[in-house]
TrEMBL record, chain A:
GO biological process, one term: aerobic respiration
Main localization, broad class: membrane
Keyword Metal-binding among UniProt keywords: yes
Biological role stated in the UniProt entry: NDH-1 shuttles electrons from NADH, via FMN and iron-sulfur (Fe-S) centers, to quinones in the respiratory chain. The immediate electron acceptor for the enzyme in this species is believed to be ubiquinone. Couples the redox reaction to proton translocation (for every two electrons transferred, four hydrogen ions are translocated across the cytoplasmic membrane), and thus conserves the redox energy in a proton gradient.
NCBIfam families (UniProt xref): NuoI
Oligomer status and interactors: NDH-1 is composed of 14 different subunits. Subunits NuoA, H, J, K, L, M, N constitute the membrane sector of the complex.
Binding site for [4Fe-4S] cluster 1: 80, 83, 86, 136
Molecular function terms, GO-annotated: 4 iron, 4 sulfur cluster binding; iron ion binding; NADH dehydrogenase (quinone) (non-electrogenic) activity; quinone binding
EC number assigned by the record: 7.1.1.-
Gene: nuoI
Comment on bound cofactor: Binds 2 [4Fe-4S] clusters per subunit.
UniProt-listed InterPro entries: 4Fe4S_Fe-S-bd (IPR017896), 4Fe4S_Fe_S_CS (IPR017900), NADH_quinone_OxRdtase_chainI (IPR010226)
Name by which UniProt lists this protein: NADH-quinone oxidoreductase subunit I
UniProtKB/TrEMBL annotation, chain B:
An example molecular function term from Gene Ontology annotations: NADH dehydrogenase activity
This protein's GO CC annotations: plasma membrane
Membrane protein topology class: Multi-pass membrane protein
Assigned EC number: 7.1.1.-
Subunit structure: NDH-1 is composed of 14 different subunits. Subunits NuoA, H, J, K, L, M, N constitute the membrane sector of the complex.
Keywords attached to this entry: Cell membrane, Membrane, NAD, Quinone, Translocase, Transmembrane, Transmembrane helix, Ubiquinone
Pfam family, one: NADHdh
Catalytically driven reaction(s): a quinone + NADH + 5 H(+)(in) = a quinol + NAD(+) + 4 H(+)(out)
A GO BP annotation: aerobic respiration
Family, per entry: Belongs to the complex I subunit 1 family.
Name of the protein: NADH-quinone oxidoreductase subunit H
Transmembrane segments: 12-30, 77-99, 120-141, 161-181, 193-212, 248-268, 280-304, 324-343
Database matches in PANTHER family: NADH DEHYDROGENASE SUBUNIT 1, NADH-UBIQUINONE OXIDOREDUCTASE CHAIN 1
Amino acid sequence: MSTSIQNISLSGRKKEVSNKEMTFMESLYLVAIVKGLMITIKHFFRKKVTIHYPEQTREMSPVYRGRHMLKRDEQGRENCTACGLCALSCPAEAITMKAAERKKGEEHLYREEKYAEIYEINMLRCIFCGLCEEACPKDAIYLTVSKELVPANYDREDFIFGKDKLVMPLEMAIANSKSVN
Amino acid sequence: MLDSTFFIEKGIIILVVFAVTMLFAMYSTWAERKVAAFLQDRVGPNRAGFGGLLQPLADGLKLFSKEEFFPNTPNRFLFIVGPAIAMSTALMTSAVLPWGDKLVIFGKEVILQATDIDVALLYVFGVISVGVYGIMIGGWASNNKFSLMGAVRASSQMISYEVAMGLSIIALLMMTGTLSLKEISMQQSEWRWNVLYQPVSFLIFLICAFAETNRTPFDLAECESELIGGYHTEYSSMKMGFYLFAEYANMFISSAILAILFFGGYNYPGMQWMTENVGVNAANVLGIIALLIKICCFIFFYMWVRWTIPRFRYDQLMNLGWRILIPLAIINIMITGVCILAFK
Ligand code: SF4
Ligand code: SF4
C-alpha cells in the first residue's frame, strides 16, 4: 500500500466515504427503516435510566461537592470561629459573615470564643469549587458531607442560605459523637 | 323517514364521535410524550395525575392562559381563519367513518355511522385536500418568511402525495367495487382484510398518510431546526393549540381510515359467530372496541416512526413521491387489473 498522505490513518479506523448511487430497493428506504424501528422498539422495553429525583437520589461519590455544611464537633458545638478565611479564599465572593463574641453560658454552643452570628452563602454565586473548605483552619465548612444539591427555587433571595440551612443538624452531630465514642 | 328520532340518533352519534376524536387527540399528546420517552429510555410525564394522565389538561390550561399574540400583519382575519380551517377539516372527516355495523336499541336498528354516503372515500380525500388551506393560509397570513416557507413546503408536499395516495386507493377500489366505507368494511368480514390482498397499496397509502398528516419523517412544514416552527411560528395561545390539536386529530382520523380500508375496520375474527350466538349488540360493541384497538396500534406506529427516523431532505421527499411511489402505484393498479381478469 502506498503511504501517501491520503491513506494514513492514525486510529486505524479510517473509512473511505462511499458515494455510490443507491439501488432501487435502497432508495425506497424500507429496509433501513425497518432496521431502525427494531432498534427503537428494543429500547421501549428496556429498563429506564431515569432517577425520580426528589424521591430517589443518585449515589454520590465520596468526594462529591454538594451544598455546604457548617460542622459541629463531637459535643455538638459549632466549629466556625468567623475568621473570614473562607470568604477571602472564595473566588466567587459568595460568603459573607458577621462575627460575635461568645457570652458566658454559651460554651456548649460554640467551640471558640468568637463565632459567626450570621453566616451566609449565596448559592447563585457559588461555583462549588471547594476552596472555602480548603481554607478553613477549624475544619468547620465542608462540601462533601451533605451530598445534597441546592434545590430549585422561585426567588433569588431564597438562594442565600443562612445558618439555618448550613449548620449541621444536631441529630447528625449526636449520631456522629456516638459513632466516635 | 325524517322523524325526530332520526335527528336525535344522528345527533348523539355525531356528538359521541366528536368527543371521542377530541379525547383521542388529547391523549395522543400524552401518548406521544410517553412513547418518545420510553423509546429513549426515559419515563416521560409522570407528575400530573397517575402516570401523568392529567398532563393534557394541564397543557390545555397553559395554552388557554397564554398571551394572544398577533404579528404585524395586514391579514388578521386570515390569521384567525387558518387554525379554524385546520381544525374543522380535521374533524369533518370523521362523519363518514363506520364505527360498527349496527346496534339494536328499543327494537330499532341504529347504524353506527354519522352518515353513510356512497362516495365516502372521495369525500375523505376532498376534505383532506382542503386541510392544506389551513396551513397555507396560516403561514401566509403570518407575514413571516419562515412561516411562508413552511406553508409552501406543506402545500407542495401534500399535493404531491395526494396523487400517490389516490392512485394507491384505485387498486383497492378495483377490488371492492365501491367507494362507501361501510361496504368496504362489510366486505372485509372475518379474516378477509384488504391488506392481505393489497399489501403494496397499503404500503403506499401508509407512506402517503405520513406525508398528509405532516408527521416525521415528512414534517418538513414545521422542522424546528430549519424553520423555527414552520407555519405556526407566529401563533400562540389556543390558535397554536388548534394547529397542534388538528395534527393529532388528523393522526387519529388517518389511523381510522387505514384501519377501515385495510385492516377490516370493526371486523374481528369470530364476529359472525358472536352475532348469531350472543347477540347483535354485544358483537358490535366488541367491533367498536376492535376498531379502536386497531386505531391505537396505528397511532402507536406513527409515534414509533416519528422517534426513529430522521426527517427527509426536501429533494428526497419529492423524489420518493413522484419518482417512486407514483410509478409503484401505477404498476400496482396494472397487476391488480390483470389478477382480477385472470381469477374472475
Ligand atoms: S465552594 Fe468555592 S465558590 Fe462556593 S463558597 Fe466555597 S470558595 Fe466560594
Ligand atoms: S468556616 Fe472556617 S474559614 Fe470560614 S469563617 Fe468559619 S472557621 Fe473561618
